[in-house]
Amino acid sequence: MFASVIFTLGAITALTLVYRILNFINLYFLHKSTLPRYLHAGKHSYALVTGSSDGIGLATARALAKRGFNVIIHGRNREKLAGIANSMAEEFPTIKTVTVVADATNARPASELVAKAIATVEEEGGKLTVLVNNIGGMSMFNANPHAALIDTPVELIGKQVDLNAVFPTMLTRALLPNLMANTPSLVINVGSYAGVLGLANLSTYTGSKAFNHMFSKSLSAEFKLSKTAIEVIGILVAQVETSGNPSNKPDFSTLTPDEMAESILDKVGCGKSLVAGSWRHCVLGQMPGWLPEPMAEAMLRKIAAKRNEAEAKKWR
């Protein structure tokens, strides 16, 4: 009897492991993106990418333009966005690029400004079929982003939560009438493994990113329940080399913005509501779960301490 129980448990464990390996291979090496499904309005199809003046956002906007979408790029710096629009017009002469300026740290008015820009695009015949909620971060504020909560100014906490959680939520709500009218449509929420791991001295950032992840899962389930043809996918991101997140020693886990953007778009249609964008980030993000909890927490504290020390030196 005992032997049969052990055999059964062993068989279940082995089958689960085989399933996970096959699922990993399919997801990251065999799956073909269904992004063209959202190009159904042809030359009138538009994709909005928030926080697209540099980094992952800019790379994603360019990748979408390469795939035939007109793009709406968003940021805070009007001159920078204008320069990007001119550059994209030269690189993609058949694609339209629209700019919209709004400060996402003031979530409600910013979401209203972006929604008005989309309304203008649609009045002129465009159709919003893709929304990429990319904007987020912690390094754009004039303060140490790795400070303990007790040392974080109250006004900064509000701005971080607005930027990472409130703005994407309010913008998605504001644009749902457009996305519902233009189905099938797509919402991509760019998240962070920090919101899964809960790193020290990043409580506001990791908390707001965790909200982002559950927002993706819940909204995806909501549309499936109502049989609304809107795909929602949350993307878990780890180390990416950007101006706001420089890496002095790029390694196995570090991606360029272009690599990350391609990986994000490659996951469209994978059937998951929350997934690591890159197989390398998937491996890195899953590693703590393979260890005993005390060991995993000790490892994460060590990583956090090293990074906190490096950041503190910049602000002395």
Low-pLDDT residue intervals, each spanning 5 or more residues: none
Rounded average pLDDT? 90
Instruction: Please work out how many helical segments DSSP would assign.
Output: 10
Secondary structure: number of strands: 7
Structure notes:
The chain is of the alpha/beta class and 316 residues long. The chain folds into 2 domains: 1-30; 37-314, Rossmann fold. It is 54% helix and 12% strand. The chain contains 10 helices and 7 strands. A 7-stranded parallel β-sheet has the order 3-2-1-4-5-6-7, sandwiched between helices. The chain is globular and about 70 Å long.
Can I get a quick summary?
With 316 residues, the protein is an alpha/beta fold.
Fill in the keyword field for this structure.
2 domains, 7 strands, globular, alpha/beta, Rossmann fold, single chain, seven-stranded parallel beta sheet, 316 residues
Secondary structure elements and their pairing?
Elements (H helix, E strand, L loop, with lengths): L1 H29 L14 E5 L5 H12 L3 E6 L2 H14 L5 E5 L5 H17 L3 E7 L20 H28 L3 E6 L3 H4 L5 H23 L4 E7 L20 H10 L7 E3 L2 H12 L2 H22 L2
Parallel strand pairs: 1-2, 1-4, 2-3, 4-5, 5-6, 6-7
